[in-house]
């Protein structure tokens, strides 16, 4: 979805004239446990990678001002992966919501996207796990066509709570998307229905007790991006969900 939010600017520039009634996008949830386990095995015990892969679906609403375009995104993400816990690779599954924004230029075919993710799920042991985090991507890393299909890379930061432990992971993400323009709810906008897959990988994770202090200023220094480059409302929301991180509801 992060790739699509970047790529939709190009799709809007070259594909808007093909606006037509589209079919609803259904989410396809495929687990890749064997692949993820092989990635962890390569890293070795005690140096296990955090990695995950999942499917998403969502809607992007586009607004134009000359060659500039902005986007609002809402969608769902199902994520399965491996979390290093005390040197062991533990499988997890979560489902949650993505909220995002983007901006771009249809003349230069460039764009940038920012997203937040909030989800809940379980470890392989059945223990509840909660996930909060953010994603970014820019349009320099993907290819796009008139049907708004593309692929690319970006970066992520996730905070994962399991039991009394809080894990922080940051790393690279990659994805592939497909979508189609549909009649918009607001006739002054364009609307895109989309779906796709994405994968996350981090070389290491940092674990600490949930009772350890979590301050916004210190947290910002651990993020892989400067939050001043994010839309203010979205960056405020990201910090709120990270600093106010609490155990999943019983």
Shape: globular
* CA gyration radius, whole angstroms: 18 Å
Mean pLDDT over all positions: 75
Oligomerization:
single chain
The parts where pLDDT drops under 50 for at least 5 residues are 1-47, 141-147, 246-250
Report the biggest beta sheet as strand number plus sense, adding barrel if it closes.
Answer: 8 strands, antiparallel, barrel
What is the helix/strand order? HHEEEEEEEEEEHH
Between the first and last Cα atoms, what is the distance in angstroms?
29 Å
| Largest sheet, spatial ordering of strands | 1-2-3-4-5-7-8-9
Q: What's the helix count? A: 4
Explain what you see.
This protein has an eight-stranded antiparallel beta barrel with strand order 1-2-3-4-5-7-8-9. It starts with a helix and ends in a 7-residue tail after the last helix. The chain has one domain. It is globular. Helix content is 18%, strand content 51%. Residues 1-47, 141-147 and 246-250 have low confidence and may be disordered. The chain has helices spanning 2-15, 33-43, 216-222, 232-243; strands spanning 50-65, 68-85, 88-105, 110-123, 128-138, 143-144, 150-162, 165-182, 190-202, 205-209. The chain is of the alpha+beta class. The chain has four helices and ten strands.
């Amino acid at each position: 979805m992060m790739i699509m939010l970047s790529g939709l600017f190009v799709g809007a520039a070259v594909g808007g004239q093909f606006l037509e009634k589209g079919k609803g996008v259904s989410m396809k949830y495929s687990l890749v446990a064997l692949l993820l386990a092989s990635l962890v095995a390569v890293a070795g015990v005690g140096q296990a990678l955090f990695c995950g892969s999942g499917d998403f679906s969502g809607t992007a609403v586009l607004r134009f001002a000359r060659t500039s375009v902005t986007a609002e995104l809402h969608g769902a993400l199902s994520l399965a992966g491996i979390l290093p816990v005390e040197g062991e690779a533990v499988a997890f599954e979560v489902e949650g919501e993505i909220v995002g924004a983007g901006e771009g230029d249809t003349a230069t075919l460039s764009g940038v996207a920012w997203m937040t993710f909030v989800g809940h799920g379980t470890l392989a042991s059945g223990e509840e796990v909660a996930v909060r985090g953010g994603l970014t991507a820019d349009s320099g890393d993907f290819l796009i066509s008139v049907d708004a299909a593309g692929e690319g890379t970006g970066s992520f930061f996730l905070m994962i709570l399991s039991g009394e432990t809080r894990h922080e992971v940051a790393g690279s993400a990659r994805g592939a998307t497909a979508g189609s323009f549909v009649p918009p709810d607001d006739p002054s906008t364009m609307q895109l229905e989309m779906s796709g897959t994405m994968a996350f990988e981090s070389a290491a994770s940092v674990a600490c007790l949930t009772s350890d202090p979590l301050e916004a200023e210190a947290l910002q220094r651990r993020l892989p991006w400067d939050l001043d480059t994010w839309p203010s409302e979205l960056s405020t929301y990201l910090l709120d969900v990270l600093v106010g991180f609490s155990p999943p509801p019983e």
